[in-house]
Amino acid sequence: MKIILIAALVGAAMPALAGNLQNKDVRTFKANAELCEHYAGEWDSELPLAQRRAIEAGINASCSKAQRQARALQRRYRHDKAVMRLIKQYDSVRSFDAG
Question: Considering the entire predicted model, what is its pTM?
Fold first, then answer.
């Protein structure tokens, strides 16, 4: 009986252990950053023009969103090492220049 109670308490505490990484704004950033990296990895100068333009549109949309979100998250979670590590792992977001 004690084991079941302990397992239930640990299971209930798991979301709390994830901290701010589970917040909607952080998850949204991660989704946009992953999409940004996907599009950046797809781009190739030898693709047909229409395909390059579609990829460039995806890059511009997802990377610019992720970059804005990263700046906001860096301000909001500046003391949260896990969130800061998450942001830093997306090179294409850091190197993207929206304009």
Answer: 0.73
Determine contact, residues 59/35, Cβ cutoff 8 Å: no
Question: Residue 23 class from Cβ within 10 Å (0-12 exposed, 13-18 middle, 19+ buried)?
Answer: middle
Report residue 87 as tokens. Answer: 């942001």
The tens place of each residue's pLDDT in the chain, 99 residues long, gives 555 545 555 555 444 445 888 999 999 999 999 999 999 899 899 999 999 999 999 999 999 999 999 999 999 999 999 999 999 999 777 766 544
Roughly how many angstroms between the first and final C-alpha of the chain, as a whole number? Answer: 61
Question: How many C-beta atoms surround the C-beta of residue 70 within 10 A?
Answer: 20
2 membership: H or E segment, kind and range:
helix 2-18
